[in-house]
Amino acid sequence: MARIGTLVVLAWTLVVYTAAQGAGADPREIKPGDTVIVTDAAQLRAGQTVVAELPKGTELRATTIQGDWVGGAAKVGGRQVTGWVQRGQVTLYKGGTAAGGGADWPGWLGPHRDNKSADTGLLREWPAGGPKLLWKAEDIGRGFSSATVAAGKVYVTGDRDGKLMLFALDLEGKPLWNIEHGQGWNNESRASPVLDRGKVYLLNAHGLIGCYDAASGQKKWTHEAKEYGGSGGGWGYCESVLIYNDMAVFKAGGKNCIVALDKTTGETLWTSSGFDAGPEYGSSIIVTFEGKPTIVSGTNHGIVAVDAANGKLLWSNPWSTGNTANCPTPAYADGHVFWANGYGRGGICLKLKIEDEQVKADQAWTTHDMDCHHGGYVIHEGYIYGNHGGGWACLDLKTGKRMWNEQAVGKGSLCFADGMLYLFSENGGQAALATCSPEGLKLTGKVKVKGNGPSWAHPVVTGGRLYLRYDANLYCFDVKQPG
Hints:
483 residues, 1 helix, Methylamine Dehydrogenase, Chain H, SH3 type barrels, four-stranded antiparallel β-sheet, 2 domains
C-alpha cells in the first residue's frame, strides 16, 4: 500500500507541476536511454520527497519521459539514486546516449539496443539496382561483426592472419587506424565494437575484453573472462559489450556469469549472483521497468534478469535451456521481454511485474512461429518482426498470434529505420527494403553485395546511410530521400 501511495503522490505531483510549467520544451527531444546533463543545481524527486540534490553537471540516464519531467538514475556521492527532475533543468548530452549518440549507431543493435535507427527522411523505395553506392572498404578481415558508426567514424572488426583486428575508418571509408585485440576465431570475427564517449569496447571470441581510445586505438585496459572463472561455449564468446552508466558489462559465464566493470578504469564493480550459467552467444540489454533498471540476457540455462546496481538475480526462465546455441539478443517493449532462438526452439514472451518491490516476470506465451537462428527481431508498435526459419514472420507482442510469414530474401538479419525494415540475407549478399506492417510484407527495393560464405552481420542504418558487411567487405549506400 505504501508503494501505491507513493505512485499516486508522484502522479499527482507530475500533473500539478506540469500544469504550472506549461508545455515547456518538447519532451520528444529526450528519449529513454539518453544521457542528460543537469544545467544548474536541481532536485531529484520521488513524489514530494527530495531524493537527492543534483549539482550542476550531474549526468542522469533517462528511463522515462512524462510531460515536463524526466525520470532516471544518477550517481550522487558515490551512490546510485533514481527519481524525477524537471525537463527544463537538464539538457541532452552531446553524444545523445551513454553509448554514443541518438543520431549515431554506437554499437550492437543501435543507440538503444533495440535494433531501431533514429533516422528519418529515408527512401521508401529503391531504384532498380539499389541505392547509390558511396564507398566500399575491402580487406577489413573476415567475419560477422556489424558496423559501428559514431562520432564521425566507422568501426568494424575482422579476423586477419589469425588475429582479431579492430579497424577505424572515416565516413568516406578511408582507413584511420587498426589494432590487434587478441586471437581470432576460425576467420570469423563476432562481436561489434561499442563506442562510448571517446572509448571503444570489444570482446573477442576467447573472452578478452578491452577498452581503447576511439581516436587512436591506444589500449586503456583489458581483462579476461577466465579471471572470473568463466569459459565460453563451443563457438567461443560472441557478445557485444553493454555500456550502462559507468559500467561495461559482459558475460564471463559460470557462477559469476555477468560481470560489470568500471568502464573508465576496468575495475570490477560487481559480478552476478544467484545463478550459474554459460554465456551463450547473444548480448545483454538494459530493461527499465517502473523506474527499476535491470540487465536482461540469454544464457545456456535460459533467460535471466539481474539488478543493474549489484548483479543480484531478479528473475529467470529456463526457456531454451540445453539448446544447440542461443544466439539472438532479447528485445523489450511495453512491459514485455521477448527472446527467440533457432534449432527448432522458437520464442518466449514474458510480462514484467513488480512484486515485493522487485521486478519479476511471468510467462505470457511461447511460439514456434519465430525460429530465429541469429538474425534477430525488432518490436514496433505492438508487433514483433524477425527471422523465422528460412524467411520472416510478424507476431503480436501481447498474444503471440502470427500475423504473416513470408520468404522475402530468405533467412537473414534485419534492422528498422523510418518505418521500414532493412533485410539482409545470410546467403549471396542479397539485401532488401521492406514495409513494416502487421498487414503483410512488401519488398520495395533490392541490392546485392559481394562476398563469400554466409553473412551473419546485421544491416546498419544511420546518418542517411546503409552499411552492409559481407565477408571482408563493408559497403556504404546512400538511402536518403533527395533534396
